[in-house]
Design a protein that fits this description.
The protein is α+β, with helices and mostly antiparallel strands. Helix content is 32%, strand content 30%.
Length: 122
């Protein structure tokens, strides 16, 4: 089963890191990523650009485009992992390892349904 691990953190806090601090966190995360890669369990990983580069499309009639993310939160979605896990507990273990490498913020863990054109949700 595929799981998305959505990475939330205070964007201003993370954005205030020096290049060296950011590289140190990325190095710790790379250890977990390399382990998952060796196990054949790591799918796409993305680090999102700042919310100042984002836009939100509100599904109104007519559609409305807003600058930035729409949610009023203290933590922003900064990136995500797609991992292949046996079950939710296994996915939570992976999120715990990632959290140990990058403390603070939160990881939301959700099962992923894959849509295939002309097919069903799997």
């Amino acid at each position: 089963m595929l799981y998305a691990i959505l990475c939330y953190h205070d964007e201003d806090f993370v954005g205030s890191w020096t290049k060296e601090q950011d590289e140190a966190v990325m190095k710790k995360l790379a250890v977990v990523q390399e382990k998952l890669t060796r196990q054949g369990r790591l799918g796409p990983v993305a680090r999102l650009l700042p919310t100042t580069a984002a836009a939100t499309l509100r599904k109104e009639d007519p559609p409305l485009v807003l600058d930035g993310p729409y949610a009023e939160t203290k933590e922003q979605l900064l990136g995500f992992y797609i991992v292949d896990c046996k079950n939710l507990d296994d996915a939570l273990d992976v999120a715990s390892e990632l959290g140990a490498a990058n403390p603070g913020g939160a990881y939301e863990v959700r099962p992923v349904g894959v849509f295939r054109p002309g097919g069903n949700l799997t």
